[in-house]
Amino acid sequence: MPLSIDTGTSVTLHFSLALEDGHVVDSNFDTQPATFVVGDGNLLPGFEEPLIGLVDGDEREFSIAPENAFGQHNPQNVQGVERGNFEKDELELGAMYSFQNGDGELPGVIIEVGDDEVMIDFNHPLAGQVITFRVKIISVSPQRVH
Q1: Is 95 part of a structural domain of the chain?
Q2: Do 14 and 55 belong together in one domain?
Q3: Which among 65, 73, 133 has a CA at the least distance from the CA of 109?
Q4: Over the stretch 114-126, which tens digit does the pLDDT of each residue have?
């Protein structure tokens, strides 16, 4: 009987993440499969839970709601920054910009450029999106002890 995916198992898989309109935002179907241990924090819990019980060779597609994926879009994560903090040539709508905060770098996207203020969206770019998570399980094995 094949080993099924559970907390602590090592899983090797191909995956893709797509938006509801079919736009693929990440995929490793054309490259090397990824290996992770269920519960090690490398995969968001909302992406791990649907894998529980799958075995080698299984192919599935799951719809992951925003609250189980990258979170809902939070209006409080959209903030104004004084325009003087930017070089003139940096101000481009949709541009990703890194800000220093107490914990290191925080990426944000420029969504509006005003005369005195630049509006930055610090939400994850996939926040508020339903994600189609497609997987092909290559192998499931007991976690290797290092």
Answers
A1: yes
A2: yes
A3: 73
A4: 999 999 999 998 9
DSSP assignment of 8-72 equals: TEEEEEEEEEE-TTS-EEEE-TTSPPEEEETTSSSS-HHHHGGGTT--TT-EEEEEE-GGGTT--
Counting the structural domains of the chain, the total is 2
What residue numbers bound the domain in which 23 lies? 9-70+128-142
Say whether pLDDT at 100 is over 90.
no
Task: Give the H/E segment covering residue 78.
Answer: strand 78-82
Same domain as 79, residue 47: no
Tokens representing residue 76 in the block:
């409080």
Label residue 83 exposed, middle or buried (CB < 10 Å: 0-12, 13-18, 19+).
Answer: middle
